[in-house]
Write a structure and sequence with these properties.
Layout lengths: L4 E2 L10 H12 L10 H21 L6 E4 L2 H15 L6 E5 L4 H12 L3 E5 L9 H7 L4 E5 L13 H10 L3 E5 L11 H4 L3 E5 L10 E5 L14 H4 L7 H39 L3 E4 L9 E6 L4 H10 L2 E2 L15 H5 L4 H4 L2 E5 L6 H21 L5
Parallel strand pairs: 1-11, 3-4, 3-5, 5-6, 6-7
Antiparallel strand pairs: 2-8, 7-8, 9-10, 10-12
Helix pairs in contact: 1-9, 2-9, 3-4, 9-13, 10-13
The structure holds pyridoxal-5'-phosphate.
The site of pyridoxal-5'-phosphate (PLP) has 13 residues, from helix 3.
């Protein structure tokens, strides 16, 4: 396989070799069902609980507040549907933002069909949720607020702890989709003040198909997947043991390494932006200049299509994105860029580079070398001129 310059870490990350190694045993050596009663199974169960401790540790939770899921999407569905149905007697109103991941937005849209009322609140030009709008949108029917910790497309970090203060005053549950922050920046459930939080292994060098939901003790929530008595009766199904052990290992590594990683990645991100901005006129930075996760650089390049730039970058062995992976392939401009006020024609010219711990300065310099001629060529062919 030829080496790709991989700049799409917000879509997924490579699984760390230490994680792969830790998982290996749990396929065909220690393959017991952790619910069985013999010693061999109890050993599997112990490994599961060690992993749970590590997941709890990375977000400052208690182990019995962690439930393993199949990933971020399931955790989001569980949090939102679970709280919605368990608290229906209190009210039917949920607040979210216009820039959430489809795992949240489409769950909310589905709930609308079940009789729930959803308010999609706006954000400013950097993607920050308006706190006054949030406060004034809460009614006596509001049961849940779900706002992401950091946005996957533009990287903006939301002031969650300020929002949870508002929610608490009004007795409303608060869920945050922290899929893009856990493992990358400090994400502590008590500092944030959230009742529920979603995380996903494959965004921070863990395996795909495993995640977790944090449920603060005392939160009224219905089960989402019914069956056996797994996961404190909250999420049925024989556990994905290799995944769980892998997630635990990814948390252990991130706790030790994320700070150093973050500093290094931020330098790469700024090097990339400065290099591109110096060589290409008419580009716009999307997302908050300061309150942004280190690895994310989202830009709009005027007068060209994001898809065309991506294809040309791909020919050079560079993997990037023009929005979220889930939204790409559709011709609709990014809902996130539209929400921050980017004009639709400009939103079509967006590029997202997301850096990770394998990237080097040489990777960045290669992009700075190849992107300007690509843009020049595409602009020369563009009907919009320049
Ligand atoms: N939420 C956010 C913010 C994401 O970026 C993603 C993945 O792209 C998800 C949820 C979904 O997570 P998973 O891929 O683990 O289902």
């Amino acid at each position: 396989m030829s080496r790709v310059i991989y700049l799409d870490h917000n879509a997924t990350t490579p699984t760390d070799t230490r994680v792969v190694e830790a998982m290996g045993t749990y396929f065909n050596e220690q393959y017991a069902n952790p619910s069985s009663i013999y010693k061999f199974a109890q050993e599997a169960n112990e490994a599961k609980e060690i992993a749970r401790d590590k997941v709890a540790q990375i977000i400052g939770a208690k182990p019995n507040e962690i439930v393993f899921t199949s990933g971020g999407t399931e955790a989001d569905n569980f949090a939102i549907k679970g709280v919605a149905f368990a608290n229906r007697n209190k009210g039917n109103h949920i607040i979210t933002s216009k820039i959430e991941h489809p795992a949240v937005l489409n769950t909310c849209k589905w709930l609308e069909k079940q009789g729930f009322e959803i308010t999609y609140i706006g954000v400013d030009k950097y993607g920050i949720v308006d706190l006054d709008e949030l406060a004034s949108t809460i009614t006596d029917k509001t049961i849940l607020i779900t706002i992401m910790h950091a946005n996957n497309e533009i990287g903006t970090i939301e002031p969650i702890s300020e929002m949870t203060k508002i929610a608490k005053q009004k007795g409303v549950y608060f869920h945050t989709d922290a899929v893009q922050t856990v493992g990358k920046i400090t994400t502590d459930v008590n500092e944030l003040g959230v009742d529920l939080l979603s995380l996903s292994g494959h965004k921070f060098y863990g395996p795909k198909g495993i995640g977790a939901i944090y449920i603060r003790k005392g939160t009224k929530i219905d089960s989402f997947i019914h069956g056996g008595h797994h996961e404190y009766n909250r999420r049925a199904g024989t556990e994905n043991m290799p995944g769980i052990v892998g997630l635990g290992k990814a948390c252990e590594i991130a706790i030790k390494e994320r700070e150093t990683d973050e500093k290094r990645i931020k330098i790469l991100r700024d090097r990339l932006y400065n290099g591109i901005a110096a060589a290409i006129p008419d580009i716009i930075l999307n997302g908050h200049p300061k309150h942004r996760i280190a690895g994310t650089l989202n830009i709009c390049v005027k007068y060209v299509e994001g898809e065309s730039m991506l294809l040309n970058l791909d020919l050079e062995g560079i993997a990037a994105s023009s929005g979220s992976a889930c939204a790409s392939g559709s011709l609709e401009p990014s809902h996130v860029l539209l929400a921050i006020g980017v004009a639709p024609e400009l939103a079509h010219g967006s590029l997202r580079f997301s850096m990770g711990h394998n990237n080097t300065e040489a990777d960045i310099d290669r992009v700075i070398e190849v992107l300007p001629p690509i843009v020049k060529k595409l602009r020369a062919m563009s009907p919009f001129g320049k």
